[in-house]
Design brief:
- With 308 residues, the protein is mainly alpha-helical.
- It has one domain.
- It has a two-stranded antiparallel ribbon. A two-stranded antiparallel sheet has the order 2-3.
- Helix 1 crosses helix 10 and helix 2 packs across helix 9.
- It is globular.
Length: 308
């Protein structure tokens, strides 16, 4: 049960990463790889502030702002300086590696003695159970694991609700329209460039916020923790799309969150059944490749079968 609770919690935390990827990849059709750097940036900023005695909420909020600034830089490079989408992300991601080292002062920054959101999660679990351990569906679990799951679920639900409300405002609708039909939105007098910059700021802010939560849950921030995270986010978005099969905002947000949790559960079970941890990134990349290629391949097969 501890394995499942940990998988659910990490899946929920990384669903914020997946929501950021959804905004850039699905809403704006923008191939933004800044996420690999901004998730570490968020973790680095939060960890640095926490080790200096700052409140966990202030540290997490600062992480969101830091990620938003990184996303803004990517958007400005693309819209103002006309740099290719992919190259814009590469430039910012590369710069963030050095920035993260400067922020943390070292490659790995532990949070063992700092007060974090995980500390409050443990207090929440103790308040609910009345002890340092609890029983969930007949299985013993620690108060920290139970509290972390509940806190992560509450944070994700609040952020998903805010995103749903935002995307149903005039600004949010304009952002979605910018990704769906750029020519039409330009004809209405809306600046597509500004919409992209705002969208990437929100997306990378969410990614960095996920990094801050992940660092507090795991108890450390590491300069390498963002490697391959964009592939994780893509996998979650793809799974969510397959689960829900709807393009409405609410369904897409729900599917992305469920996709992240389900994907983490699959990974946790695969590791439990003997998957070499060194192969995890490779397996994830193969999964995303298959998910991207198989639908079009199946359509070609069906068309060929119908023609014959």
């Amino acid at each position: 049960m501890t394995l499942l609770l940990s998988a659910w919690t990490i899946g929920l935390i990384l669903s914020l990463l997946a929501l950021g990827i959804y905004i850039s990849y699905r809403v704006f059709k923008f191939a933004d790889i800044t996420a690999d750097g901004s998730i570490t940036f968020g973790a680095a900023v939060a960890a640095a502030m926490l080790t200096h005695g700052r409140h966990p909420l202030a540290a997490s909020g600062a992480a969101f702002v830091a990620g938003a600034l990184a996303g803004t830089c990517t958007g400005v490079l693309h819209t103002r300086f006309k740099i290719n989408q992919l190259l814009s992300g590469i430039l910012v991601m590369t710069a963030l590696y050095s920035i993260n080292l400067h922020v943390m002062g070292q490659s790995n920054l532990p949070l063992l003695s700092a007060t974090t959101l995980a500390t409050y999660a443990q207090d929440l679990g103790r308040w609910i159970s009345g002890h340092d351990s609890a029983t969930l569906m007949g299985w013993p679990v620690s108060a920290r694991d139970l509290g972390s799951l509940l806190l992560a679920a509450a944070i994700v639900l609040v952020i998903a609700a805010i995103l749903w409300l935002f995307f149903n405002t005039n600004l949010g609708s304009a952002m979605r329209a910018s990704g769906d039909n750029e020519q039409m939105i330009r004809a209405l007098g809306v600046s597509v460039g500004n919409m992209i910059v705002i969208g990437l700021a929100i997306a990378n802010g969410l990614v960095a916020f996920a990094g801050a939560l992940l660092a507090q849950y795991q108890g450390f921030a590491d300069v390498q923790m963002g490697i391959g995270m964009i592939v994780w986010g893509l996998a979650s978005v793809i799974i969510g799309r397959a689960l829900i099969g709807s393009d409405s905002v609410g369904a897409a947000l729900t599917g992305t969150i469920l996709g992240s949790v389900l994907f983490r559960l699959i990974i946790a079970l695969a590791l439990r059944w003997g998957l070499n941890p060194n192969d995890l990134k490779l397996v994830t990349a193969i999964f995303v490749f298959a998910a991207l290629v198989l639908p079009s391949a199946m359509q070609k097969v069906r068309r060929h079968a119908a023609a014959s």
